[in-house]
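REQUEST
  id: r-88c1
  op: predict_structure
  target: Homogentisate 1,2-dioxygenase
  payload:
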Amino acid sequence: MRVVEDVVIIRSDRTLRSIDRDEHLLLASPYPSKLPIKLWNDHEHLPVVHFPQTYVEQRFAPPRGVYENDQLRVEWQVMNGRQPFYHRNCDVDEISYQIDGERTLMTELGVIEHRPGEFSRIPRGVGHDNYGRKESHLLFYLPAPVDELVEPIRTSQPVMPPFPGWEPGEINEAVTQCMGAVGNDIAVFPADETLLLERVHAEPERMRVHSIGGSAGTTWIYATPTIRLGYVNTTAGDGSRRYRRTLDADEIQYQVSGTRTLATQRGIVELCPGDFVRIPLSLAHASIPHERSTHVSLLSHLELPQVIDTTRTADPYSPERLAAAVERSQA
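RESPONSE
  id: r-88c1
  status: 200
  body:
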């Protein structure tokens, strides 16, 4: 089948160039070579990491790192209760995406009641704590400052008490560097929670809440010169598809809802809600949605390695495997 491959770069929304391709050749193994070079079939097939989206009772634990480099980290967290301290980042803006359940985010810039499908950004240096109720969320630590590219649906507000049952008191505060990773505390000390939360009345700045909308295609919400973060909506189509090759960025995808098949030059894999996958820089790939599908997308100019165990890997390409995905999309 003839398809189109779009070649893009992270800093531009315009396609650098488009290339007509034979899809079978684009995804197939290379022809044998006598040259002593590493070929496509020497690379591993794409690994997938999965966390269930439905809450499972467990003890409080630090967030689990999924991908990380020297400037950026992606974490998955589950909570049913309070984080046991306030946290203040030295070097990064902390962005969260609410997967499931409800979470109260308490800060010096006001309180946000998070619902599934919402993003917010805590600016560098702002103290914050969370109170979750059988919930899960993603955390993205990006080098500050981070630009917000779209208008919010609402903002943080002064709320006292921040949630039912809250009582004033003293609680630890941790100031951290290195993206807040465990073991990178600069200072940990008791703080008066009431004084911290009432600071909102002297602060003109508010945090902005963004939500996954219904528009088709890609919507970028956050950006730095070398990073973009947003979401992608697709629907099952007629079998036509475009491949994408980002020349200067790794892409992390997190499947929010719906199912789709990801066809790449390192295998084919079906993605379901709760799946993470990393598409390395300059690897051609296309989504084949089986229904309405939404995923979070993160582009990183620096390589963003996986730092947690793999749940499963993509299947090797075959015409039959691709045809089955296309048939399901058209059903």
